[in-house]
Amino acid sequence: MPNPSSLFPDSSNSSEVQDILFGRSSNRSLGGNLHDLSEAQISKLIHLKFDNNPITLIRQLSSDLTSKERDLILLRKEKFAREQLLLKLLSEYGNLSSLEIDQKLNTLKIDNNADNVLHDLIESAMDEHLNPESNPSINNRMSIKPTESYRLRSKSDQLRSPPERTSQVTSPIEVLSNTSSNSTTHNHSHNNNSNNNNNNNRSSSWLGNWFNHNDGSNENLPGTQGRPQSKSFSLQIGPFGSTSSLSSSNTGNGVNSGGGNGAESSKVPVELDSIKVRRPYEDRTPLSAGVDKFGFFNDMPKEAQKSNELLSDEEEGEEEEEEEDDDYDANTSGISESKPFISTLVETNDLEANGTYLSTSKAKNTVTSLDTLKQLSRMHDEKSKQYEDEWETFFKSLQRDYYYSSNKNKVKIENIPEKDQNNTFNSLYSSANEIFGLKGLNLIKLEKIINKQQPHHHVGHVPLSSDINSTSYFKKLHKLIQKMGIPPKYRSQLWFELSGSKNLKVPGEFDRLYNLSISSVNDPLIESNINQVNLDLHRTMPSNIYFNDVVNSQPGPNYYRLQKILYAFVVYKPKIGYCQGMNKIISNLLLGGGATAASNNEEDEKWSVNLTEEDIFWIFVGFIDELLPTYSKDFKDYNFFDNKSLLYIGIDQKILSDVYFPRFLPNLRKHFKTLNIQIEYITLNWWVSIFTENCLPIEIWIKFFDNFLVSLNVEILFFSISLSLFKNFEKLLLSISNADDIYLIMKNLNQNNSTKSNLKYSELMQLSKSFEKKIDGQEIESLRMMYG
Amino acid sequence: MSEAAERFAQFKLVLLGESAVGKSSIVHRFVKNTFDNMRESTIGAAFLTQSVHLAESNTTVKFEIWDTAGQERYKSLAPMYYRNANAALCVYDITSRSSFSKAQDWIKELKKQAPEGIVICLVGNKVDLKDEREVDEQEVAEYVEELNQEQSSAGAPAGKVILAECSAKSGDGVLETFNVIARALPVEDAVGGARNRQLRNKRSSGVDLSRGRQQQQSQAASSCC
Fold this sequence. Notes:
The complex is a heterodimer of chains A (788) and B (225). Chain A is an all-alpha fold. Chain A contains 33 helices and 6 strands. Chain A folds into 4 domains: 4-73 and 113-266, no CATH class; 388-484, no CATH class; 503-627, putative rabgap domain of human tbc1 domain family member 14 like domains (Helicase, Ruva Protein, domain 3, Orthogonal Bundle), CATH 1.10.8.270; 645-787, Ypt/Rab-GAP domain of gyp1p, domain 3 (Cyclin A, domain 1), CATH 1.10.472. In chain A, strands 1-2 form a two-stranded antiparallel ribbon. In chain A, strands 3-4 form a two-stranded antiparallel sheet. Chain A has a two-stranded antiparallel sheet with strand order 5-6. In chain A, β5 and β6 (636-638) form a beta hairpin. In chain A, α24 (645-664) packs across α26 (679-688). Mean pLDDT of chain A is 69; it is low at 1-14, 23-31, 130-286, 300-360, 410-422, 457-470 and 595-608. Chain B has 225 residues and is of the alpha/beta class. Residues 192-225 of chain B have low confidence and may be disordered. Chain B is 39% helix and 22% strand. The N and C termini of chain B lie close together (7 Å). The interface between A and B is medium-sized, with 33 and 27 residues.
């Protein structure tokens, strides 16, 4: 091992200092800590190293500190952003409530003893078996003190692998780099410390940095070609190119690498990089960063967006990941180098004040909590797999029964390829007849047929699955949808059938209607409706990239789809016309029903058919015509979106607030009464927009829409959803004694992060189910008469 | 120098006007001092609050703002919001004649249906687009004058329509408009009203309200303290 004393101009005098700096002193627990030195030692150090000029030392120390601080802040911010993203993903895909996640996270045990933590980190780093073939792409850049004309070169190749970086990053302290010198090209080796397996010197590393620092000017040397041979990897923290590497004990094999100008800093917390973030709803067109799976721009701060970008970029693959890191590092170190001391400090304070990142203690927890998050996502994956299996089973038994029943009844159906078990749904779907039918009512017919057939079973007849499983298909479908909504891969096709669109759709009609809408400008009714539509087109989902392509400052693809659908609808139903709220519903359908939703693997790709705007149009028509509540007055039926219906929707709000509220939510009702809160101010918006406007977040709305499609009494569902939204926030609302605040909360449910994150499909559905059972359709009818 | 205790009053204000004249934008400029070219259309009605402080009377006026949807078919819902409103902002777009006549319709309806004493303000928005102006300032002024004369000749108390123009985009005139409305509101009555919590607290801590009011009046008369 080269002698570390070669670092010092006067090596004969420096051995004591050196011992202290490198932690060999036996009387200190954390050797090398400057604060542990005696005054005499410090002055000796200043004398030796800084020509009796302590200012250099202080400057160096404080700039090191600031850069540390800065790095920590960046780390924390990035961790925070990643954690947020993960949490979001978990709640979006996993139906995991934040409570569940919190509970999981709270079970974590965090060792607060820094020494223990460090010890473990070092241990695990030592145990790493690094792949020597991995790309040693990162060069160390050293700074040299010109006055002493030392030519130093970093020789530690960086072999990085996620787990190690994980452990390193979490350590606030690094170990001195252990490099072996190639004596032919270098006069001195630097920072050499063969004792780095000693826990005690862990903290000495960043102090070690200033040995190689001058006051800002670096001299970078061209490097010789290096081959990765030692099992060492380095972590550079700080803008001045201070390098420290953690090595395994056999660093004797010479490592030489180009010193050069490889700007690097491995401060990216890597454990998250290994979690591949999937965006199953990604469109064919690549999403830009900061856009969620439905294409909504995140309100993330710029920094967080950046880390998000990194995260998504790393989906590309491992090799690229390395590059990404380099780019990123070069970037940041470039910034930091040019950043003067003061401004760094100011920035630090600003960030501190913003409080947008995790607290220090929380940052410590991140590693462990991320493991838990990984675990949670695994749990979630299993859960959804299980759920999809349930659907699969459902379809299989349905297919079998359908096949036999139609054969019995001589219903001609295209051959169902029974062998093709994997293609259950497709084959089921491809048959000319509707298996599900509007609202799934065909299932009830099917059950009747099956039940009729059952007594006539002959010997040897294959028993129908309904013999085994007597639950009715319709109920089963209903239950499955209530559980987690329709799985994305079946959604588009089921929407198409359950909404009745399959029957409604007339080929070519959509295009005809649209063309009419452009030409028939002399119809004042249509004209005024078109004008209304035009006013709203650019005001629909402006924060979604599919509607508003801000990058190219032009409308997104869904803008035109929405336009086409609304234009065609206005011609199709001129008496209903355009009603604000329709734009929201269609937008949600476009986002959820296929136009942008693509599944995340090829297997699923096969199943899901992307719905065109034509399909969405017919689904929307089906929804409006067949599924939404209608209001009857004087033997006339009014469509939900009919102008006259507003009055009756208003009456329903009265029923909600005067009958169901006191019955089901008496405490809340009392509370609202004292605050003089009118519930209909809140619920009317929900109803006229079918719970889209400032109400349900889209991922939940889509699942409720699934439920609307199979609900036999949608108005009961409307009442029960309204009640469950209040029930969901009952505690919070009871604790607020200001009417304005309650309005603000309930009228911005999907706008506020705090309320949004507390809306969970499964929880809401559970509540809604319990209310649904207690609400009687007959009663609603008579109440309507009473209040009308 | 004895100073009158700060007083609080809360009022309900409703925004009415044709679709896309900028009602929500005005509210957001007033409440958050932001402007967004791409604002979502309002469905039903949105709710926000904001306070203004009137230095001359040391009064904080809090507005509960109900920002209604402009689409014609939601018109039938408007009474629900202006039913017990203290002030109404009838907004039109100075670049659209039709929006002005719609605002006139709203004023007519309010005069008929709204609670007596409601403060009505007719606001022309989008003055930043003066090149595209379709509604003449003079014409609006004459209309309002006529309206107010009718009012006084009918012997009705107060109830003058306030005239204003603003730009939610540039921010010009927005705060001023709300300040004018705040001054026109019957702060005295509202302060005494039971709906104000802070005030009730004050009362229980021994501040004599009626004296405060007298003080306030004398202050206003002499405009010195």
